[in-house]
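Design a sequence for this backbone.
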């Protein structure tokens, strides 16, 4: 199991580095952003060649709802701590200063925010846990949460905008998402938690498209 785990990490980090390198070269044509964002998903999905795809359970037992509540509360807590970073976007005046986000960029960014929540949870909470199921549970959760926060540091885009506080929050919410997966064995739970954590960015991205456009239309009247 340790050997398989190390092989998967080697495959992941090699693919991750190559995807970063290739993505940096893909620019200045119509579908460049879509292709770049799609390439981001590949390293997270490659381990499924060894583990197989996760099965999704729709059996809503008591543990499902308790775990769902846990991940939503943890995600909301993480968002609450980072609220100051989002607060500026609640002020309509800000949107007078920015150009409307083009529709194709809106689609690509929303695709990235939603897709990353799904593929990252499949990788961290499913694929890695599958290879660590005989390890000590606490140790497994800590390793996966360190990887979760650490890989975000390796991403150029997030490294520019994230602070130490952000990485600590990522580590701690990952602990909660991992616990929820161990309790239920249902990958839907951490995916929902991750989507809730990404929800402010999903909403803000839409506002950057919608509000400046409305302001522009209002000024043209």
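Sequence:
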């Amino acid at each position: 199991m340790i050997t398989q785990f190390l092989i998967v990490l080697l495959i992941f980090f090699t693919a991750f580095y190559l995807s970063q390198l290739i993505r940096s070269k893909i620019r200045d044509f119509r579908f460049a952003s879509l292709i770049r964002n799609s390439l981001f998903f590949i390293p997270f999905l490659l381990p499924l060649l060894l583990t197989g795809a996760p099965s999704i359970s729709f059996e809503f037992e008591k543990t499902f709802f308790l775990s769902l509540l846990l991940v939503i509360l943890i995600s909301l807590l993480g968002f609450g701590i980072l609220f100051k970073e989002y607060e500026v976007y609640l002020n309509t005046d800000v949107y007078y200063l920015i150009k409307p986000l083009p529709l194709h960029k809106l689609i690509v960014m929303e695709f990235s925010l939603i897709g990353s929540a799904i593929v990252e949870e499949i990788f961290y909470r499913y694929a890695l846990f599958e290879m660590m199921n005989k390890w000590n549970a606490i140790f497994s959760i800590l390793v996966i949460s360190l990887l979760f926060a650490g890989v975000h540091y390796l991403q150029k885009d997030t490294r520019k905008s994230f602070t130490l506080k952000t990485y600590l929050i990522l580590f701690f919410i990952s602990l909660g998402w991992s616990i929820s997966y161990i309790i239920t064995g249902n990958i839907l739970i951490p995916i929902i938690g991750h989507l809730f954590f990404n929800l402010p960015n999903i909403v803000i991205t839409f506002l950057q498209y919608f509000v400046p456009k409305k302001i522009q239309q209002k000024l043209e009247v």
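Residues 188-220 form the longest helix (33 residues).
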